[in-house]
Predict the 3D structure of the following.
Amino acid sequence: MEGTYDVAIIGAGVCGANIARRLSAYELDVALLDKEADVSFGVSKANSGIVHGGFHHNKKYLKARLEIQGAMMFDRLKAELDFPFVRCGIVVVALHEDEIRAVEQLYAQGVENGAIGIEMCSRERMLELEPSLSRDALGGLYAPGGGIVEPYRFVFSLVESAAKNGVRLLTGWEASGAIREGEAWSLRASDGRSLRARYVVNCAGLYADEVSRIFGAEDYAIKGRKGEYYLLDKLTRAKPGRVVFPVPTSVSKGMLIVPTVEGTVLLGPTASAIDDKGDAATTKEQLETILRSARNMIPDISETDVITSFAGIRSILGEDYYIDASAKVPGFIQVAGIQSPGLTASPAIGEYVKDLLKKAGLVLVEKADWDPCVAKLPRAKDLSPFELDALVAEDPAYGEIVCRCERVTEAEIVAAIRRGHTTLDGIKYFTRAQMGRCQGGFCTYKILKILMRETGMSWDRITKHGRESTVLRGEL
Amino acid sequence: MRELSFDAVVIGGGAAGMAAALELEARGHAVAIVEREERLGGILAQCVHNGFGLIEFDEELTGPEFAERFEEKVGARPIKVLCGCTVLSLEAEGQDKVVSCVSSAEGVIALRSRAVVLAMGCRERNRGNIRIPGSRPAGVYTAGLAQRLVNVEGYVPGKDVVIIGSGDIGLIMARRMSWIGCKVHAVVEILPYPSGLTRNIVQCLRDFGIPLYLSHLTTEIYGRDRVEGVEVAPIENGALMTAKAFRIPCDTVLLSVGLVPENELSRTAGVTINPMTSGPWADSSLMTSVSGVFACGNVLHVHDLVDFVVEESRRAGAFAAAWLAGARPGREVRVKAGSNVRYVAPARVEAGRDNKLYLRTMIVKNDALLEVKLDGKVLLSSKKNHVQPSEMITLKLGKAELAGAAELPDASIEISIL
Amino acid sequence: MSQELTCITCPIGCRLVVERTASAGGGRDPEGELSVSGNRCPRGAAYAREELLAPKRTVTATCRALASQGSRASQGQGSARRIPVRTTAPFPKERVGELLAAIYALEEPLPVARGRVLIRDALGLGIDVIATRSLG
């Protein structure tokens, strides 16, 4: 038995992390559980990384209200935490006359939602904002409040903050059984571990339906919808200054061109229904669709700039989010079907779930010593030569550039490992090492050695992303 | 932050950088080499196979031996070597160049010089570059990374291997993996002919009975956590035959799908890049578009023999030394890639002296003809027993041949393989 | 009986066809027992003869490095765990497996100098195995 908690949160994605951090402000024992080797390894790791502009959804939906509220919380979170976020703005480009009508509707919806600074743009204004856009652009919409964020860094930082304030993180903890014993749930993990919690929050993303079943709560089915992406090199000529959206269709917001916070350009996502929720394979057809669509908006996009492709899976339940206390079982909160704009809404979801727990009887007493801030780790690529020189004097590991493409030092790799990111992917998401143009060709062996040295793990225990993803198969 | 001054700074301490630095020093210039690894030698350290040095040393050496011989030459001369030191930026400041670099021992240092030689080498193309669809499991490595893991670190990246691409590093790794007890199930090549040398096809594949699938495309990598296999389909008359696709189970995929000159630093310094080579545009003296910045070896264009790298880099070092001494190129003539030629490097010759050129063909042919034309008039033609894309062709254009070019305004030379 | 092979003496890669004449016996090489065709130059015939009768390969590999106390190799980062080695001459192909086993069984203390003989007269065939890099 790994203790008794007031709240156990199942799933350490962006929702679970926000909820955990919000609850860490109160005198509560909170456990954050995830079945993967690290946090943010599910739906939250592969998405567009957008803080939306508040014009895509009608306010009648819970997701639209949470989106607007959540988007406004990011500036404060950025000040307190350590993750990249820039309010670079969003444009929606109309390429045909009838698309202008659709943009007008989006504009009206944005105004109704209270999206700050939103404006309609002429062709001239549009091309002035984004000179790389196609000459076919007829006009569009500009929402200056939209922004870009690194989703996994956001989650990592939320979890770091939560842990600093007493939340217990348990990774590799896959919920496999639950029984109600008196006033609490007794939870069992597939590896035999167990714990007790008075309240459970189900943020299990793609697998929220299975978790709900384990608790005997509502019966629903989460479907996976795959989104494929291309990532372009930093030196691409086709980098817009803002997030570029096409005019949305009835099923999706379409494929975007995102200038990421780290300087690369992301194209995607596609949208295809899948049966196997673990199927994050990319396909030739969809990837070609992305390039075609992106070139309609920015013709300069070149295949030679592609450094990698990947796919993320959205968890689809219904038209709106399902966030509520279970009507069937006590002490069980459902946070399910969190698709776009989930990342944007997530801070507001933290707040909303905190209120649901309070309503369900959880007593919230603010901690006197809650510290909302985490230390901001200096990163070599952001430093002037003088700043870097001063840091090397303090810690020589800042003088060892491990990843040349993204300029990541040994000190940053060590910092990632000491924060619990002990898989190659975890280190990649925390530091960006292996994420640049060589995709780990030069630095992987260096990271392996640092990982073994820092953790004492032997070569056969090093994995790419946990489970059976071992990197090495033998020693000479 | 310290600042040091030199006549020339060489970026990269592999074969190219060492050869260029030695030439500069031999002509009396104060030279520094900046190398990011702990020791000089570059990628040669992990190329433990033989086949190096036949031209340079007239004997067959392994990569480490070749590297160490140059390392000793550098060590015997007063050349400042900064190892474990990564260059952060290269900037022109008036007549000077400033290379700032960082190491754990010294922090950030600025190296001021009048000339810079770029010798950063190249990197491997990877899965993203060739866009192989499928899942993203552990077990997909570039051949060079696998080579490092096996030959230097002593780890086995996987036991059942499929190699995508038939470049020489992949072929060499097929033999290496076989020799350490792993099973190489196939080499898959999209082109109808191998990208690597015939000798390697015979000694690295046939010796071990490894099948080579020419004109086959890898259509998918599958496996959730670790690679479980690849799907491969033949290409017939230019069309992908998906109906004939088949799967090859394996736990490891090695990619040997080409090399790209590593010019990110050059680009940020304002050096213009030739899209055909992905290396800098260079004049007849191997000087880039930034005055006083020279380039040689694999950062200029990808070579197939280190012996050629050394030869070219010596010239770059000598040209840089001459430039430091005040020499400037005389009348230059543009060189264009003609029929069946992918590129010619450098793309300029100087009419008043002997020039050496490297070119790469786009075709496989026996009894070919190399033809050099000046404004449409044949200057030179020579018979080639055999040409293929993986074998770089060397060409000398002497003062005599170019005599006519000096008089013609806007003359250009075109080189073809027929 | 005929056999096909690819010549590797130059990049052309001639496809050689080797015929064994009827009188041949015992596998020795009296000139004329093998007839080679398909070669564009005499080197092809010589290559075919050697490749069929006594094939040889230069063997390159690595062996285990034993870090001595206080040497750079014992400090982990940036140091090699393997010493690269090669044969001093091409080695009979059919015995490469045995040779590799002998190399893999080596445990050489550092430091090691390039050219140091690690196995003298390997398998009694008069060929040495030497280190190809100075380490430690």
User: Anything to note?
Assistant: The mean pLDDT of chain C is 85. The interface with chain B takes residues 5-8, 10-13, 40, 57-58, 60-62, 64, 78-82, 84-86, 93, 96, 100, 114, 132-134 of chain C (CB under 8 Å). Residues 31 and 49 of chain C are 9 Å apart (CA to CA).
